[in-house]
Design goal:
With 99 residues, the protein is of the alpha+beta class. Helix content is 20%, strand content 35%.
């Protein structure tokens, strides 16, 4: 297991049509470090965003897709995505409010 600090766990938010649709249910989607655990993601969200209380965390691992450019073959980068559900009495996360 990697020794990750809380500011290294969350890499960026996911801004898609599906992730914006579930904001009403207080579910937020992030790209996280591939070696981060659910408890590390929970701690990172609670420390980075004031007033956020995490109820649950679901994580998904994505492998790289095969790509081809001419006769050169390769793969895209693998990544991990986390869907964080906040508690009912929690404050909303501000980075998604302007969307």
């Amino acid at each position: 297991m990697a020794d990750l600090k809380y500011y290294d766990v969350i890499l960026k938010p996911v801004i898609t049509e599906n992730s914006m649709a579930v904001l009403d249910e207080k579910k937020y989607t992030f790209i996280v470090h591939p070696e981060a655990t659910k408890s590390q993601v929970k701690d990172a969200v609670e420390k980075m965003f004031d007033g956020a209380k995490v109820a649950s965390v679901n994580t998904m691992n994505y492998s790289g897709k095969p790509k081809r450019r001419g006769y050169i073959f390769g793969k895209t980068k693998k990544y991990k995505k986390a869907v964080v559900k906040l508690a009912a009495d929690s404050k909303d996360i501000e980075i998604f409010q302007g969307m």
